[in-house]
Amino acid sequence: MDKLKMHTPDLIDDNISKIALQFPNCITESRSKDGSIKKSIDFDLLRQELSDSIVEGPKERYQLNWPGKREALLAANAPIAKTLRPCRDESVNFDTTENLFIEGDNLDALKLLQENYLGKVKMIYIDPPYNTGKDFIYSDNFTESAEEYLLESEQKDEEGNHLIANTESNGRFHSDWLSMMYSRLKLAKNLLKDDGAIFISIDDNEVHNLRKICDEIFGITNFIAEFVWKRRVSSAMADNNVSSDQDYVICYQKGQLEGFTGNEKDFKKYSNPDNDPRGPWIPDNLTVGMTASMRPNQAYNLVDPSTGSIYPYNPNRVWAFIPKSMEKMIAEGRVIFPEDISRRPMQKRFKNELKSTHNPFSTLMSDKVGLNTEATRQIQQVLGGNIFDYSKPLSLLTVLIPQVCNGDDLILDFFAGSSVTAQAVMQLNAEDKGNRKFVMVQLPEECDEKSEAFKAGYETIAEISKERIRRAGAKIKDENPDATDLDIGFRVLKVDSSNMADVYYSPDAMRQDLIAAMTDNIKAGRSEEDLLFQVLLDWGVDLSLPIKKEIVAGLDVFFVDENSLAACFANNGEITEDFCKELAEYKPLRIVFRDSGFKGDSVKINVEQIFKLMSPHTEVKTI
């Protein structure tokens, strides 16, 4: 019976496997530091295979480099032995909601989600630190070996802080920020659907560098637009008497975005005063901006066949159609002749003949998107004070999300801040009866003791973020009493060290007598629900699926999404063959047991045979 690996995927191994599919002759073996044999790439052979297109080592090429870039890539690819622990007390509608709030370092969170949400996210929106010289950025540690990183990756500085100040006096001012963004964006791309898109808020300080790393990660041909958002009115305290009033939102697609929805056209002026069977219409110009010398075949006098009135052409702006086409237009009743001969004939534009009901979405964000002052006011309305600085206005998200998302898509924000993205998702669902889902990720960054947030009882930014979702959800529910299916809940999951003892990952490093003395692979203080969520992570199962606990033959069994997965973490030899026969009747797709739940190897072997006979399609594993 196989064991689950209980750590995040090794993306380097995944990349080697992908290359092996195309170039199997380039795969070789090498020894790792511990002496074990592992797959490697023969780069000389690979260069030979790609000799017509590869860029050779020392040759100059156009790219963005900075100190620490390779280490940032290593950080993105390296596996970690961590988990997500559920927290029911801080959640809302834990058992039924499809929304997630993940508390912890977003680099860890993105790694943990790699298998569960691979290719499932339709839209990512993030509002990362702008690197203004006053920001705090994540303190990523790139100096550990892969083995140390796997077991000890806590991503803190020497004083135990997750965030460090990135001031302009720092010699790696831009490099540190780029490394932070690079590793996270590399991982985030994997989560996007093929027709998904990412939106990133940024200002003048790093927009040029951000564009370059996104060109590299997402591909320069997948750049969609750089939207400009007016965030404030002109400031009297402007440097050089120039007020920088805008921020940017850059957008890249994964590769197959169908296009933006656009802005719905205004149909208020359409009417049908003459009861035309073709429906509502508006009068439109019947001329084009061409001169008679440019379009001589469109320079002619137009005659109203009903009255004989003649309308001469304008030599500076001729008719839009040649005579033959105009005759057809008149015969079809598409030309409106005015009673006043001094006025110009018009044409009917029918609503049902429009190629599109929407106008293109402008890169200049419309007045529908409010200023920063709107964001401040919304924080005050929801949380009752100036609890959080630098949030984005709700309207920015309620305008962007419908451009790429349908009614049941998944939206991810891994720099959640005050979780304005979550509020926008719930608001849009209330308005159009959609079922969009969100995943928020926020570090439990401590609030300054002098801040309004701390005085109001919030110890961390994550607490502010969760409370905003709670209050905003309740408010939206109250304002939409008919929206009975509206999901205003969220499951709180917290990044933590693995539930598994160190021996689970490196049994060869422990003395055999110590291993024999151990009765369980599980750390003390971890609950069965903790174990369940690490199993879901390991097996790549959606973390928002419904979970119920039933008693089968006297033992607790978790069922995820009915029979997608069953889990029994009974301990001390409680798992019997009779119990497994009853459990096999449920025919789950997957089932996991606690290794210490079996009395011995013989019982474990018999249990495996029971499932092969009674439920042959069930995948059986242990932890």
UniProtKB/TrEMBL annotation:
Reaction(s) catalysed (UniProt annotation): a 2'-deoxyadenosine in DNA + S-adenosyl-L-methionine = an N(6)-methyl-2'-deoxyadenosine in DNA + S-adenosyl-L-homocysteine + H(+)
Pfam families: N6_N4_Mtase (PF01555)
Gene3D superfamilies: Vaccinia Virus protein VP39 (3.40.50.150)
MF GO annotations: DNA binding; N-methyltransferase activity; site-specific DNA-methyltransferase (adenine-specific) activity
UniProt-listed Enzyme Commission number(s): 2.1.1.72
Domain DNA methylase N-4/N-6: 121-431
Class in the EC hierarchy, top level: transferase
UniProt keyword Transferase, yes or no: yes
Gene Ontology biological process terms, A to Z: methylation
Keywords, in A-Z order: Methyltransferase, S-adenosyl-L-methionine, Transferase
Family according to the record: Belongs to the N(4)/N(6)-methyltransferase family.
Protein name from the UniProt record: site-specific DNA-methyltransferase (adenine-specific)
Organism: Desulfovibrio gilichinskyi
Organism taxonomic ancestry: Bacteria, Pseudomonadati, Thermodesulfobacteriota, Desulfovibrionia, Desulfovibrionales
